[in-house]
Specification:
Elements: H1 2-8, E1 10-16, H2 22-28, H3 34-41, H4 46-67, E2 76-78, E3 84-86, E4 93-99, E5 102-109, E6 113-120, H5 127-133, H6 136-144, H7 147-168, E7 181-184, E8 187-190, E9 199-204, E10 210-217, E11 224-229
Parallel strand pairs: 1-11
Antiparallel strand pairs: 1-5, 2-3, 4-5, 6-10, 7-8, 9-10
Length: about 240
Amino acid sequence: MHQLEKQFAGIEIVLWQYSENEGDRNRRMQSLSPDELERAATYRFERDRASFVAGRYLLRKLLSVQTGISPSKVPLSPDRHGKLRLEGRERPQFSLANTDGLVAVAVASGCDHLGIDCERVDTEIEAAAVDNYCSADERRWLMELPASERTRAAIALWTLKESHLKALGVGLHEDPRNVAFSWKDGIPVMVGGDRDRRWHHRLVESGSQHVVALAACSQSGSPGISTRLFQDDSMPSE
C-alpha cells in the first residue's frame, strides 16, 4: 500500500542552467505562443528576456511530453492571480520559476497544490525587506545565525514562502509573514500549518549558485521527489 501511495504522489523537478546565447534564445522562441512572444518583447533588459524565454521554453517542452501536444500549442493560460493553468486538463500539476541563470520546473501527479521558487544566493536583501516577509520568530532565528550564514538563510526563507504562496495560487496577494517556517531534522516545517492539508516543503540541491524551494500538498502522504538537470541537446550553442 505504501508503494502505491508513493507512485500516486510523485514530483519531478527539472533544473536548467540555460545559456544566454542569442542564437539559442531565438530558436527557443519558436516554441512560445504568440502572447508569450509579445510579452518577451516588452522586457527592457536582455537578461530578463532570456530568463522569461528559457522558462516558458522548458515548461512547454516538459508539458508537451506529458500531453502529446507540440510545445507551441500547449494550451496555457493565467488565472486571475497570474498562475499558469493547463486548459481543459486537471493533471498534471506544474509550477515554474526562473531567475538569472536558472529555470526550475516542477511537474506532479497526485498533488492538490504545487509551487516552486528559485533565487540566486547572492541576492541582496535589505533589513526592511526581511521585516516585511519574516515573522518575529524567523527574524530572531536569523539574527542568531553567524553573519556568514545569514544571507543564504534569509533567501531560503523567502523561496520557501514564495513556493508556498505560488502553490496556493495567491502569490504576494497574501502576506508572507503569515507563512512561517522552522526546521525539524534539517527539513523546513510550516509553523501552525493547516491541519486539513498535508503540506511538504523542501529545499532542493540545485548544483548551482541558486536556492530552490518546493511546496506540495498531497493527501496520500509524502510524495516521491526526483530531480534532474535538463540538457537541451537539440539546440547546441553556436
